[in-house]
Design brief:
The complex is a heterodimer of chains A (317) and B (267). Chain A has 317 residues and is α/β, with parallel strands linked by helices. Chain A contains 8 helices and 17 strands. The longest helix of chain A is centred in the C-terminal third of the chain and has 16 residues. Chain A starts with a strand and ends with a helix. Chain B is globular, with a radius of gyration of 22 Å. Classes of the chains: A alpha/beta (317), B alpha/beta (267). At the A-B interface, helix 3, helix 4, strand 7, strand 8 and strand 9 of A face helix 3, helix 4, strand 7, strand 10 and strand 13 of B.
Chain lengths: 317, 267
Amino acid sequence: MSEILVLVDHVDGAVRKPTHELLTIARRLGEPSAVFIGAADKADGVVEAVKKYGAEKVYVVDDAEIKGYLVAPKAEVLAQLVEKAAPGAVLISSSGEGKEIAGRLAIKTESGLITDATDVQEGPVTTQSVFAGNYTVQAKVTRGTPIITVKPNAATPEETEGAAATEEFAASISDSAKKAKIVASQPRKASGRPELNEAAIVVSGGRGTGGDFSEVEGFADALGAAVGASRAAVDSGWIPHAFQIGQTGKTVSPQLYVANGISGAIQHRAGMQTSKTIVAVNKDDEAPIFELVDFGVVGDLHTVLPAATEEINKRKG
Amino acid sequence: MNIVVCVKYVPDATADRHFEDDFTVDRVGVDGLLSELDEYAIEQSLQIKEKSAGDETADGTEVTVLCVGPEKATDAIRKALQMGADKGVHVVDDAIAGSDAVATSRVLAAAVEKLGDVDLVVCGMASTDAAMSVVPAMLAERLDLPQVTLGSVVENQGKEFRIKRDGDTATEVIGATAPLVLSVTDQSGEARYPSFKGIMAAKKKPLETWSLSDIGVDAGEVGLEQAWTRVEGTEARPPRTAGEIVNDDNGSGAEALVGFLASKKFI
């Protein structure tokens, strides 16, 4: 069986959940080899984390020299590993950075690239959701090493012990890969709520909130949900862009999506249409969001949500 | 400074988009237009040009709009010229049809090289049809340029660029020196509408049409048959079955909502 390279998605050595999903998918395709590009002193913790999800091998690449230079050096590292290991595929998480690394890697290795897979099966054959979620597409890479970026929640992480044989890999990085640099960085404050991309339940608010998200947040907390927003709410400055769901924000596919005061324009639907169960609260009974819902309430979110929150909290005791 | 802004002609996202028998996107049967997200790239290019006009040390800045696409894609270029771009280049060739992102980036890169002496290549954050968001990175790779992508704020002092971008875990400022590839998000600033004067002026602006041989790309490197990926099948998502809608007129909406969520085991 050939190696399947999985680029570890992490924040300063803290492995993010999509990595576990990629390792689970990699086991369907071959032998998972995790690639950790980061601080050498965090390697032990990362090896422990990926070992639990079946990594047979871990390539550790010390990023002391390339930290802050964005995607170009990471693509060079992966290209050199592809040459060395001749893997059956390279799996990368479908973040902005992940897709850009994948794009550069595809050109470097003369390989086909598939982005935003919602499933990957033997072949590898990928499934993607396109045209605002109105179509699904099955595709394959036909040249070079399949390079596939995978969306969060594409697989349920399965724990299984891997050998996690560690190998330090010293890549040679060109000067031209170091021409764009992060000059300042402000970490985002943690909200204490689940991450939007990973949450099982998402509660979102739009223009109908009138700028007050406290009722949406209260309802979300009662359900243990992540909070999202429509572009109208973001453009009005009511909530940061990181919370935007839709064509130019995040695409979510949770078990339950609750849209409050969101009309449901195509751009918003693009970001949530593949949710398993959809619920909406909206004053306008002709809002297009009601075409999508499993359950809808025609009413004012400012009265419905607080009452529903109280009822849920009462039931929970 | 020479700015090239790359734009895509896409099927209207609000229309009934679908696939042809060979699984390529139907670009003829659905009305097309300039990809909305590319308007932000045009806007930022024009703002950079306008800022440089007040800088006496800067040479003149020219904005060239570059589009790879079928005959009708001229509409997208025309709109960019109406907004204020100086000239247009349309790469059109039957052999390009069905190209994937890898081949599209090859054609764009060859066209940028033919234009020559380019300081800044500007792209939107994604197309509104395929939405892969990889062409800027691929272009940077092919042109061996740094990339600063997904900027929500763009600032420059001559050829020194700083962008701000909002990531999942942090807000970052990224710096690089032109020549470089830049992409901007829909948070970067509302795109202007063409003025009447702009619409009239656009009619006289130069618009060149290039074939693959004009830019030195072999037809065997592009198109559907040569794509490095292959679509095996497409399936329309079944329409969602109509759900239950209740009215909160009598104040029972919240209870009904909670009842539904409990019945689905979300509570």
